[in-house]
Amino acid sequence: MDNFELxxxxxxxxxxxxxxxxxYGSQLALATLSLTIIYGVLRFSNFAQADWMSFGTMTTILxxxxxxxxxxxxxxxxxxxxxxxxxxxxxALFCLLIDRSVYSFYRKKKSQPxxxxxxxxxxxxxxxxxxxxxxxxxxxxxxxGEKYIVHALDFKDxxxxxxxLTIKSTQLITLIVAIIAMVSLFYFLQRTKMGKSMRAYSNxxxxxxxxxxxxxxxxxxxxxxxxxxxxxxGVLYGxxxxxxxFTYFNLLLPMxxxxxxxxxxxxxxxxxxxxxxxxxxxTLTYAYKKFFIYLLPENLEPSGLMQVLSTxxxxxxxxxxxxxxxxxxxxxxxxxxxx
Length: 339
Hints:
The chain has 339 residues and is mainly α.
């Protein structure tokens, strides 16, 4: 094996495993953070999370189409980034409407978390119906602007390799936006007065009330932050791939798996869990035949696909990891206080 074969193998694995997993992990981390914030402050598992994600993405698409009809575009950036703040506002308002009309009733009655969880399943079906009625069940593409930062052909020609590195602009955008959102959230929770109020409310609701913390304001800010995170995650996922409501529904299992693997209620755990699930799904379903052909002598080259699991079982990996973690370490990777 010469150095070129090794570089080809590294470029190949970067193209199909490392870069996609990093991008998908960032999207999943943001979505899981939203789920974790709701669980940590409002104390229930929101099964409508994936469909909130779908609703927020649909709203962004509609705003994107409207801006494009007015001749407003993002140039080399996707127009969806301009539409995103408007979509977050509308999604947050609709989320608050649902909270006031549904969740607040059970919260005032001091209902058990299992009751709110079951109610969230009903909200999930309502959101599914709304999204499918407005935009339909089919794939929607809403990405414009520059699509590639690094082209495979240019990379191969420049370095004289058999494999060409490809980096999509959406992958870089995902990473940058995710880092900004995570840093902003952690700063808000740790350094701001409202963030500290949310943490206090999360740790002890009765003591927080005695301290003069306004519970309604905490609930409002929680839903706004959760809406911003889940809408951003959905848009980044849609830009990187495509938008289809049922595909977003399938992300519910990876979200819960990431939250439990990382540590229930822990924002840092949510980020770690998101990347663990993303890298596990992609590394275990990738066919490594060509990768090993580059690395091994000709007489040892594999004849099979060298694939642990078929891509059809991608979401099953989340379930397998979830079961293993619940058996081996129920507290998750990060054990400690929530929020």
